Amino acid sequence: MSIVVVPLTDSADPIEINMEATDTLQFVAEVSGVFTSTYSKYFCPHLPHNKSLTLNETWPNTATYPEGTEPNPYAAGKIYTFNWTPDNEKQGGLTSSPGTIHVDTGQPER
Questions:
Q1: What is the pLDDT of residues 22-36, one digit of tens each?
Q2: Phi, psi of 40, deg, nearest 5
C-alpha cells in the first residue's frame, strides 16, 4: 500500500493521477483554493464535488483518515482528473474605504 499525496499548488492545471488497488489518496493544499471532483463514488470518504481548502489543509482530515482515503480495488488502473482553482492573489494598493476617482478628459487646459 502506498499513499498518493497530491500537492495542490498555485497552478490551475488539471490534476491527473493513476491509482492502484491498494493505494490511498491525500490532497495537501500548498495554497488556499477550491477543489472539485466528479469521482466521489470511487473513494471513501467520498471526494467532495466542491470544497474550499485553506493553506496547509489536508483532505481527507488526517485526524480521521491518517493514511488518506481507503484503498478501493475498483479505482485501480484508472486515470482520474481533478480540478484545483487556487485563490487569486489580492491586488496590492487597494483600499477598503470609498473614495473619489478623478478622470482626466485628455483635453489640453485652456
A1: 999 999 999 999 988
A2: -60, -35
